[in-house]
Amino acid sequence: MQILRKYPNAKLHVFAVWENALVTDSRGAWSKYMFGDDPRVTSIWDGTNQVGQWYVQHGYGFGGIDLTFIYDAYFAYGSKDVWKDDTPTSPIVDGSEIITHTDGLQQKFAPLLG
Predict the structure, then answer these.
(1) Nearest to 69, CA basis, from 25, 13, 6
(2) pTM of this prediction?
């Protein structure tokens, strides 16, 4: 991902959760094509969309769209944020449309990394 290449020394860790959202999605189709070999990225395949369902069940959604699970979205948490009772603190930034709107992701993350 371009923003990670732009900030190679940023202290962060990315958990990329790949979900089975589109017809072309499969465990074999995800992975390093987006992040390369960046050691700050951990990619996880969630074929049953449990992570995206969790976010919907806990009130996250974008644009008032009624979803059964969230995909093509991002959530950033601070280094001191913790999960309590299976619920994280509020994200520092969040948004959707990673695939078609990477400029939005970069605009929100750049101030946190620079």
Answers:
(1) 25
(2) 0.78
Residue with tokens 């069940």: 57
Share of the chain above pLDDT 90, in %: 7
Would you list the DSSP string of 29-66?
Answer: G-SHHHHTT-TTEEEEEETT-HHHHHHHHTT--STT--
Residues in the chain: 114
Residue 70: the pLDDT is 86
Q: Compute CA distances 90 → 17, 81, 104, whole Å.
A: 18, 8, 19
Cα–Cα distance, 48 to 113 (Å, whole number) = 32
Contacts of 81 (CB under 8 A, 6+ apart): 88, 89
pLDDT digit string, tens, across residues 71-101: 888 888 888 888 777 777 788 888 876 777 7
